[in-house]
From TrEMBL:
SUPFAM superfamilies: GHMP Kinase, C-terminal domain, Ribosomal protein S5 domain 2-like
Pfam families in the cross-refs: GHMP_kinases_C, GHMP_kinases_N
Binding site for ATP: P94, I95, G96, A97, G98, L99, G100, G101, G102, S103, A104
Kinase is among the record's keywords: yes
Residues annotated as domain GHMP kinase N-terminal: 66-141
Positions of the catalytic residues: K8, D136
Family: Belongs to the GHMP kinase family. IspE subfamily.
EC number: 2.7.1.148
Example of a GO MF term: 4-(cytidine 5'-diphospho)-2-C-methyl-D-erythritol kinase activity
Pathway: Isoprenoid biosynthesis; isopentenyl diphosphate biosynthesis via DXP pathway; isopentenyl diphosphate from 1-deoxy-D-xylulose 5-phosphate: step 3/6
Protein name, per record: 4-diphosphocytidyl-2-C-methyl-D-erythritol kinase
One GO term (biological process): isopentenyl diphosphate biosynthetic process, methylerythritol 4-phosphate pathway
Organism: Hymenobacter sedentarius
Length: 274
């Protein structure tokens, strides 16, 4: 079975409280971004252990700890009848970018195994497995725009219409680890209600929708503010860091409005329509 795990963007991200479990409570809107990896999952040949073949962008860490393998092993612990599998992951989405690529791979591995082997797990059960693999992993089960609260894994429906919105995502070849990014944050109550702010026209978001990681990462990584400035300079209606960085995105009311942009050759850039 071949699936295409997509990335996500965060529209606004407020870190509101430190939790007793060491995580933080968040308020953020997740939207799917159609920039994808490719993941294939097949029953392994008889006598072969579960394994993964990796191509594309290098992934730090050993293949045995890849989130796709960990996702499959979680299911195997509860469904011992599951066979061993061979996975192929072609990695395209930048890592440590705030785009949730690793979490998407894990969530799509769960969904693919559920479909391939007829486990008949409900969406709620799949979300519960996903939560054990990473805070933003559960979002990719339904993969629909939502307001996420608590650890970023509890969802509320929202009013949001971004159909046809032009989007540019810029990854400045800078890996920012999620724990490192959270370490620099002082939690606080948001100045605006995100649910109400994103229901307003895109042009109003610049004044009302923000990402708390931008201020905390700014001193160590001035390139982030430079890129955001360039996106606004190119006419973006809204620009922001995604998640804990380092990718930034710009949004234009229509794809045709996105101008041709030049970036340094070591950057990775995605351009398309939401
Ligand atoms: C910042 C976001 O990108 C926003 O979308 C995500 O919440 C990050 O989610 P993620 O990469 O799935 O994060 P995890 O792999 O679960 O957690 C990595 C580390 O980030 C910190 N972390 C993560 C999520 C959260 N709500 N509070 C935290 O403090 C913790 O130190 C945790 O050990
Ligand atoms: N399939 C995978 N894709 C990406 N990273 C993976 C994968 N499997 C395991 N990892 C590990 O997870 C780490 C990446 O996590 P990190 O949270 O920084 O990035 P991300 O999942 O790409 O997106 P985000 O920055 O939004 O969380 C890598 O350093 C790698 O060791």
């Amino acid at each position: 079975m071949l699936v295409f795990p997509n990335a996500k963007l965060n529209l606004g991200l407020y870190v509101t409280e430190r939790r007793p479990d060491g995580f933080h409570n968040l308020e953020t809107v997740f939207v799917p971004l159609p920039w994808t990896d490719a993941l294939e999952l097949l029953p392994a040949e008889a006598g072969h252990a579960t394994s993964i073949t990796l191509t594309g962008r290098p992934i730090p860490g050993s293949p045995a700890t890849n989130l796709c393998v960990r996702a499959y092993e979680l299911l195997q612990a509860d469904f011992p009848q599951l066979p061993t599998v061979q996975m192929y992951l072609h990695k395209i989405v930048p890592i440590g970018a705030g785009l949730g690529g690793g979490s998407a791979d894990a969530a799509f591995a769960l969904k693919a195994a559920n479909d391939l082997f007829g486990l008949e797990l409900t969406v709620e059960m799949l979300e519960s497995y996903a939560r054990r693999l990473g805070a933003d992993c559960a979002f990719f089960i339904r993969n629909k725009p939502v307001l996420a609260v608590e650890r970023g894994d509890v969802f509320e429906e929202i009013e949001l219409n971004l159909l046809g919105t032009g989007c540019v995502v810029v990854y400045p070849n800078l890996h920012i680890g999620t724990p490192e990014a959270f370490a620099g944050i002082v939690p606080q109550r948001p100045a605006h209600h995100l649910r109400e702010a994103v229901a307003q026209p895109l042009e109003t978001w610049r004044a009302t929708v923000s990402n708390d990681f931008e201020a905390s990462l700014a001193p160590a990584h001035p390139v982030l503010a430079d890129i955001k400035q360039q996106l606004y300079g190119a006419g973006a209606a809204y620009a922001s860091l995604s998640g804990s960085g380092s990718a930034l995105y710009g949004l234009w009311p229509a794809a045709a409005a996105v101008p041709a942009l030049q970036w340094p050759p070591d950057y990775t850039v995605w351009q398309g329509v939401l």
